[in-house]
Every structure is written in C-alpha cells, then in structure tokens.
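Re: the multi-chain job from yesterday

Posting the exact lines I submitted so nobody has to dig through the queue logs.
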Amino acid sequence: MILYEMIDFDILRVIWWGLLGVLLIGFALTDGFDMGVGALLPFIARTDEERRLVINTVGPVWEGNQVWFILGGGAIFAAWPPLYAVSFSGFYLAMFLILAALILRPVAFKYRSKRDDPRWRYGWDWALFVGGAVPALIFGVAVGNVLQGVPFRLTEDLFSLYEGSFFGLLNPFALLAGAVSLSMLIAHGAAWVALKAEGPVVERARRFGTFAGLFAMAGYALAGLWLAFGIDGYVMTTQAAAGGHSNPLLTEVAREGSWLAAYAVRPWIIIAPAMGFAGMALAYLSLWRGGELSALLFSKLGITGVIASVGLTMFPFILPSSIDPRSSLTVWDSSSSHFTLFVMLVVTVIFMPLILLYTAWVYKVLWGKVTMDEITENKNAY
Amino acid sequence: MELDVVELSRLQFAMTAMYHFLFVPLTLGLSILIAIMETVYVMTGRPIWRQMTKFWGTLFGINFVLGVATGITMEFQFGMNWSYYSHYVGDVFGAPLAIEGLMAFFLEATFVGLWFFGWDKLSKVAHMVVGWLVAIGSNFSALWILIANGWMQNPVGAEFNPMTMRMEMTSFFDVMFNEVAQAKFVHTVSAGYVTASVFVLGVSAWYLLKGRHIELARRSMTVASSFGLAAALSVVLLGDESGYSATHTQRMKLAAMEGMWHTEEAPASFTLVALPDQEARENHYAIKIPYAMGLIATRSLTKDIPGIEDLVAESEERIRSGLIAYDALMTIRQEREATSPEIMATFEEHGGDLGYALLLKRYAEDPRNATEAQIEQAANDTVPTVWPLFWAFRIMVGLGFAFIGVMAYFFVRSNFGSRTYPRWSLVAAVAIIPTPWIAAELGWFVAEYGRQPWTVDGVLPTALSVSNLSVTSILLTLAGFITFYTILFVIEMGLMLKYIRKGPVQDVEETEKWRVRHEHRLRTHDGRDPFANPAE
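And the result, structure tokens for all chains:
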C-alpha cells in the first residue's frame, strides 16, 4: 500500500504527539471537573440534598467524560507502544491506585443514592472524594517524575527494566506537580459547580475554588522556577534518522542543560505557559466575582496552557530515562510504524469530529442549572 | 504451580478479565432488549412498555456501571503486567483498542447518561434513538475487542521488523476481517443476547411465581424468548463457525479441545466423553460418535484433522527453523542497514518461525545454545493441558444446546399458547439464571487457556510477555483486586436483588390518561364495553 506514504513518517509522528496532547487535555477539561467535583464534595455540600445536587451536576456526563481517559490509554498503546509498555509497568503500583480510584468512582455515582441509609451514602461520598482526588494527584505526580527522568533502561531486545520504587515517585518536585494538578482540577470542578448548581453550595464552591486556584498558580510558578534552576534537562546528541525506525536505542541522549533551553530554541512556545497563567488568573478572578460560564471557560484555557507547556518544553522527549539516557523515548524513535500511525489518523479524523459533535449535543440538551426541585422530583436522578 | 511473575500475571489477568465478563454479556444483550421495549412503547404508546423499559433499564444501569468500571482495568493492564507483550505487538494490537474507544465506547458512554437523565428532556423518539445508540455502541465495542483478541488467536496482517524488534501491521484490512475475529464477534455478542434473555426470562418467571407484575412479566417473557431463541441458534451456529476456522488457524487448540492425541483417518470421530491422559497421550473410557468430528471441523468426509502428536512434531521442526531466524536476527541487529542480502533472505524465509525459537528462552538465555532435550521439551510445551479444555468445551456446548431448548419452549408458550406457564417451567427458568454466565466464562477459558503457551499464537510465548515486576508487587495488586472486586460484587448483587424485589414503578398518572384514551378508542370502534387491563 502506497497511500500511507503520502504523509511523511516524521510528520505523522508530530501529529500523533499533538493528538496525545489533545487527548490528555480533553481528559483534563472534561473528566477534570468531575474529579474536581468529587474532591470538593464532602467540603462544599453538607446535607444529603446538597450532596445530591452537586453529584447530579455531573451525573449525566461523567461516563462520557471518563472515556477520554480510556481513549488516552488506547491511543498511547496504538501510537506510542513503548511509552505504554514502559510507563505503565514502571508506575505499576501508582497505576493500580489510579485504577482502584477510577473503578470506585463510577460505582459510587451509580450506587450512592440507591439506598436511603445515611451511612451507605456517607461512605460513597468519601468514595467519590477518593475517586476524584487520588487520580488528580497521581497524574500530576507522574508528570513531575517524567520531567525529572524515570529510572528505566531498555535491553537490546527492548525489554524494559524499571529500577525505581513506588515511594521513589513521591519526591518533592513530583509532589509539587501533584499538588498543582489536584488544586487546578479542584478549581475547575468549583467553576463547574458554580455554573450548574444553585444555593449555598455555589458560594462554598467559589471560596474553595478561588483558594485552590491561587494555590495552583503559585505552585505552577514555583515548579517553573524549580525546573529552571534545580532540574537538568535532556538533549539528543545524535540526530535521529529521517523517518527512522522506532527503536530508542538507535539515538544517543545526554542529560545536560535545562529543559527551559527549549524556550531559546522555540521562543513561540512561551504562548503555552502564558496561556496557563492568564487563563488561571482570569478564571479565579471571575470565580471570585461571581462569573459563571466565564470562570469555566477561562479555567479550561488555563488547564490547556499548563498541560501544553509541559509537552512543548519537553519536545521531542516523551519519557526520558534518568539511569540510561540512551533508552529515553522521543517523538522520533518510539512511535508505532508509519502504516499504523496513518491508519489511526484516518480513523481519528473520521470519528473525533463526530464525538465532539454528539458530545456537544448532549451538553446542549442538559444545558442549564440543576435545581433542588429537579433533584427531589426526578426519579432518574442519582 | 510455582508462583512466579508469569503465573501471577496470568492469574491476575484471568481473574480481572473473567470478572469483567460477568457484566459485559448482560450489557450487550439487555441494551438491545431495552431498546426493543422502548421501540414498542414509542410505536404503541402503551405505558406498560415504558414501565418495562424503565424497570429493566434500572437493572441495566446497576450492571452497566461495573462493566465500565472493570473495563478500565483491562485497558491498562496490558501495559502494567504485560509490558513486553505491549512493546512487541502494540503496533497491531493497540489499534483496535484505540478504535474501540473512538468508535464505540465514546458513543455508548456519552449517551447512557443522557438515556437515564433525559426522560423529560427529550422527545419520545429522540429518547428511543439514544437507547439504540447505547446498544449499538456497546455491541461495536465488542467488535473491536474481539478483533484485538482474534489477532492473538490468528495473527494475520502483520510481520516482524528486526530493526524495531516487534510485530508491525502490514494490512489493516486483514486484521479487521480476520475470520477468527468475525466468527468470535458474532458468537460472543449472541452469547450476550442469550445471557440477557435468560436473565429477563428468569426474573419475569419469578414475578409470575409470586403473582406480581403479571403484565410486565408476561410481555418481558415474550420479548426475551423470541430474541433469546434467535440468539441461542446463532451462538451454536457461530460457535461451529469458530470451530471450523480453528481447523486451519489454531490446530493445536482444536486438537486439545477434542482430546485428539493422534491423527485419525478421515472422517474423524467426535469424542463425546472421555478421561484425557496427558502423560500417556490417550483417552480413557472414550465414547465416540463416528464421522462427527470430521464433519464439524472440515465440513468434508475426506480431510484429515491433525492430532496432538503430529502437531508436536511440527512444532519441533518450526523451533529448528526459528533458530535459523533467530541467528539471522542477531546478525541483523549487529550490522543493521549493512546486513548482507543473504542474511536478510534467510530471515525472510524463516522469520515466520521466530516465535518458536523464543519458546526456548525459558530454558536457555540464548536459544541457539539450547540442547536437543530442551528443544524437545519446548515442542512438548506447545500442548496445552488437555483435560480442562476438553471438559470446559463440552459443558459450554451442552449448555448452548440446552438454551435453544429452553428458549424454544418459552417462545412457543408465549407466542402461540395461552401465555400461561406450568409452575415447573417457571421454577426452572429462575434456576437457570446463572448458567449463561457459566457458559460464557467457560468459552473464554477454552479460547485463552487453549492458546497457551502463547499470548499471540506462534508469535510470542506467554513466558516472555510479562513486565519486569517483583512477585511482591503483583501479589499486592492481586490481593487488592480480589478484595476490592469481591466487595463490589457483593454490593452489586445486593442492589440487583433489592431492585428486583422492589419491582417496577407504575406511573399512575400516565397509565390513567392512557386508559381513558384507550377506552374511548375501543368504544368508538365497536361500541362494546372496553376490555382493558389497568396496567396497559
């Protein structure tokens, strides 16, 4: 088949690197507010009615939102198999915690209001808290570790040997990144509650959200400084062959300089952190001052900027290795084959617009505030 | 069994996959049954059908959420526990998983929330369409998962790339239209339809026994038995299709399932029951049906079906051929682009057997150093343990035929009879509720255990597919999954039983409005007193 050669292998790799970013951002923007709402639930909603109100703001949409995560996993598997193989086995116990939390969450949504027993409901409320807070925290911790390099090496057979431990993941910089991720998503969840709910929970959501948001901004700034002065970057010391084979061992990598050197090479990428700061600042300002839709939209902008800034700063690295830099995974040497990337791109071009279209339609049907009256009358509500 | 990383990883995967598949078949079938019921509601306007839709919908929701939740584990477990597998075949195997998300799971999950919350927000027709989209989404989901699984059984449309040390896709068309995948897809979704039909039938029968919700139960039985009969026939026919495709794609699995130790002269007989003896390579106390095996597997009276002994001899040859490929591969890895054309040609010729050389990795770090005894041992390893396969397969098939009988009985009673059922038949319908789950799990057991010692048949041995993890880590997560999943199962069953006991909620207002209209219609038609059931 010659058709797939119409798009250059390296261009496809860059496109799929971009799509990986789109999926992660898609996940953070949609499921991010579900997780934020879960993490906020025990604090902003006190009575059972209030909690049902808050839960029902995300009730009809969390299932679809969560697919961004599943699709993210599938797309990494299909487009970046070495990344899928190395990172998930390396972060084994952390992944288990994420899975446990994300399994708990759907069940909690669905089962919480199926019994009247207050203890039953109270228990599931904390399950929702765990299901929201734990993944939000661990995703950030993972990003923090990736920026510092992950302790793995590849054998000549490309078998991945991971030499770190679970507690090694919990280092100060990674915990800071985890805190940024958690607080940013809490603020995002608060913006959602402010838009979709009514009454005292909205007031509390605003307060918690603004506070969490300011914390996220400060943390993001601190992490940037830390990255500039405290963490070594990575550089490829041999040029990857154009359209070369996806074998990380074919290129040499050194650990030197700073990640932020990328901003000298590609000055335009400053857009991403600028968007991150501006989006967050405007979001938390409008959240504080009572803006509804604007807070959510700016929050989305901020999250997009923050996630994009990590990817753009690291480019072309995807998963650098701290113990054997040569094993590091980059855009040029750890993708799927030319043909597979092409097939997957075709499928994505067909289905992604459809997904966005029907998701938008569902949100439109569900547009408007969820009210107390609706919750008490509606038998279908959670 | 020694608890090493390979065995523990297999145990964890088997456990989480089989647990996941407790919920999937009901989702597959019930989504369609509910969509059918809602369609009848939209077409007739009778509130009873809306009531049925909502009632079965509640049970669907309780089940669905665990299917989704446990599916998350499946999507990530390949990378966690099967890291080398993920690297080695991700280029091919990852694609259908990603497409499943894009094409099916997004559809299903986005609309399922709207279906539950949208009763008052959508028109009747729009709500029904949303229900169908959920059903279509979940069934398409099964399609792509089975394309992925079918590739593990029959790895077509891919070849090994020595530069990247992995399998790479050469034809998406071949992967998608893999005959094994297509037969498995229809077989699996049909099994899901049977599961849901038996479930609906059983719960309805329980209501009839208790004298509750008679109208709902009778109608549900009619829908379930009609749909279930078609599905039960399809399961058995497409199961046969799977068997037929296994004849040329997975001959060892077929021979093991059938306990065929030696190649028999065509047409082979079918061993109905026997006690397979792995050591002696023979069956004890066998009862055979002449010709049957040859007819099922080859659809002819003249073609041979190879027995286990011949297949082991063939494996040994392929191991030797694979060693030549392995030797060439080592040179290619050294010389890269500078490799001589002769070596490349050698690899081309023997590369298809590379996987067989990898079987020796269990015994020798470098397969080329393996002794004759080790080669013989590796060839013997290609035989899965026969007796569990032999019996699991027979129980599954027996249940499959029994479902046809059960569905046919209720189909005839509910469509052509007086819609009354003898008490014993209702008791039986309740009692058999768990059996389709048993059949489905046994089916997966036969498919996956029968593929051993491979994760991808003939390409990658299971023993090489794992991650570099410590036994402690896996024991930790295994214990975690067992505890966590057990608790969730207890909770799920508790809620299911609670909502079955509670029964449907009758929408009094809507029923009343409908009754008035209905009586009016009947009066204007023939002037007689209306006969209407209050629930309708």
